[in-house]
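Researcher: I'm preparing a figure for a lab meeting and need a structural model of a single chain. I don't have an experimental structure, so a prediction will have to do for now. The sequence is pasted below. Please return the structure as tokens so I can convert it later.
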Amino acid sequence: MASGGGNYRNGSHRNSLKGTTTTSTDRPLSVNSNPAKPALKNKSLSSVGASSGLRKSSPGSLGGGTAKDDAGVPGRVRVAVRLRPRNAEESVADADFADCVELQPELKRLKLRKNNWDTDTYEFDEVLTEFASQKRVYEVVAKPVVESVLDGYNGTVMAYGQTGTGKTYTLGRLGEEDMAGRGIMVRAMEDILADVSSESDSVSVSYLQLYMESLQDLLNPTNDNISIVEDPKSGDVSLPGATVVEIRDQQSFLELLQLGEAHRYAANTKLNTESSRSHAILMVYLKRSVKGREPAYSSENGNSTNMAKSLRPPLVRKGKLVVVDLAGSERIDKSGSEGHTLEEAKSINLSLSALGKCINALAENSAHVPVRDSKLTRLLRDSFGGTARTSLVITIGPSPRHRGETASTIMFGQRAMKVENMLKLKEEFDYKSLARRLDIQLDKLIMEHERKQKEFEDEIKRITTDAQSQISEAERSYADAMEKERLKYQRDYMESIKKLEEKWMMNQQKLSGERKEQMVSTEEVAEVKRLLSKETSLRKAAEEEVNNLRSQLAQLKTSEASANSENLKLRKMLDDEAYQKVKLEGEISVLQSQLFQLSFEADETRRRLDRGVPGKVPGTLDSLISQVRPQLKDSGNGDKASIAKLFEQVGLQKILSLLEAEDSDVRIHAVKVVANLAAEETNQQKIVEAGGLTSLLMLLGSSEDETIQRVAAGAIANLAMNETNQELIMSQGGISLLSTTAANAEDPQTLRMVAGAIANLCGNDKLQTKLRGDGGIKALLGMVKCGHPDVLAQVARGIANFAKCESRALTQGSKTGRSLLIEDGALPWIVQNANNDASPIRRHIELALCHLAQHEVNAKDMITGGALWELVRISQDCSREDIRTLAHRTLISSPTFLAELRQLRIDY
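Model: Understood. Here is the structure written out token by token.
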């Protein structure tokens, strides 16, 4: 509680903050904290608490544990209360009752009515009525914190309150359709981007959710278990596994928020149709350069040197803004949570309870603060009792039915106002920037060195060229001298040869007479030599031809061996490629399944956020559409109360007539209403009697809109849970329409609805033959190529239902021969998915195998298809005892299976 004259910014004007900075790395923000005052109550002041003092930083606080002794200036947690206006349901239910709260914004007071004559009065830092604009809320709650973050401090903005009171509206509304509706997240980023410099500053964000005590990344859904790391010296909390995205403009930030909201968990409860089931945490990291202030570096004689100036690291300020959208506290009896939603509510209440305990301990100056009881309190260490400037907005509703929750929320805010933080400026030297600057200087020095090195090499080349030219000149002179000497000796040599030839001619003339006598015998010898030479040449030619032929034969053999070796290599490569192809196809199918799972989750979240906007509908249905259009909008949001009201006011016949409207939006809303009505067993007979089933089947066959097909198939699936309706669906060609829809649809959710409808029909003994004849089994098997786990689960359920009915018919003697599932080729897929990782798929497939194996006529096909091994595995490793027992009994009762096991030498 605070005095009425308190300033919501925890201190003085922003300009005074900038004038107090020094060169220390952690310095306090110059703020004046207003002392807390006890609440004004009509009866007693003691109910608020005995202690009215402010909480100081201590080792036990959420922000305690820091090893530094740097002084900080106290800054109390500022708390504002915001009242939500009555919604449509409260306007009707509480029409005869006054609001449980009365606001006095000019006095910053709130009165909580205990009864008609007694009230409790509380003071807050700001009281915001139901008419307060989003801009007003931002300026008084978050803008002072954003300005502190821009100055280098940590800041936290958090919303707390009962589910459905407007926390997400206050913080996370994007304002795409109405700019005035922008929430604190969007407006804070606008101010930050307007104040920072794109050249010297940087802004980055992380977007997380705390779901079921698991910290998950909303920007990367696969990162679903982020660890929290705490610095033992400073006490700072970091998230090393979280995705951090740098923000350049507002549009990219809005796209990140849209991506994160699409991955956030939400559910439909009685208190809120889109109740957040997780705590959302937006972290904005801001890094700013401090201009005009540089630390002094002096030499020993007191003069600054050039080297010292070049080694001065720039000064930067680091601020962190944390915006926390807490999930709403709720009472189970009022929210109607059950099943998994109930477990989510328990986890939310536990984490909020842990936060409340920490706030109580801090408000009471307790020596021990149970920070480690929850991941939420560990994340908010710095926000309560730490070094961050914190603003808390508590949201309440006016309904007197929720007075208890409203009082609890108000007391949480009152206790939070007693918590005091020690604000510290985050300022440090940017050694990374200094390193980049030194790298640039080093690059310049290297370039200068390379330039001088090139000049030196060019000078060496010039000297080398001059030396080579001088050497070439000397070599030419030497060559000329040698040529003259050679010509001289050559002339002397020719003269000597000429003299010798003359002497030889004289000797030849003397011998010519003797040679004439020997001519006859020489000619005969020459003839013999000529013939012998010819014979020798012919023989050599023949030998060469033989050698050439042998060489060609050897080359052919070598080529054949090489080709055979190459063929073997190619065959081996083809085998390896085939194996890799099979392996990659398996990996691709797994990745496709994961991708479809993520797409399904994103589509589910998007459909929960979707709002219908109907347009004009020409023709004779104008008056009817104008009458029910508002109700159709409400019913599109899944509100069962609105649907029941619409059903009573308009009538089923009028709603069914809208299925034939020309406006596609009207048809979509109308079929959603019919689908929601069909989900209730009490309405199914009325819908069928009024012709609703026929209209749905006609709409399924005629409409090309995939949304209409998906919702219509879902409504038919709900009606197909009744045996009488199943026969009507079959008689009106429903299985053919469903098969055609499955063949043309691509959306996994449409396929899931169609598969669910066919699976329900598969459970009817009388319709087995007609269902198979109309292509029902083929349609189921055709949908497995989608690969989505939910679609596969419905396909497996349909096959299990069909196998169970078929087994019952064989036992009763009304059917003979092999299973229709085996004849339609379902056995390979059944065997392939018998050990699927998804338990719903595996359980249905295991039941289908057991039912098929109960009849001896299917045994040989199952052995050939590999089903025997799966039956043995199921009888030994199945997690469900009834299925394990059924598989064991089936194996030991089949002579064919036992014979095969004995042949394989398997003791069973």
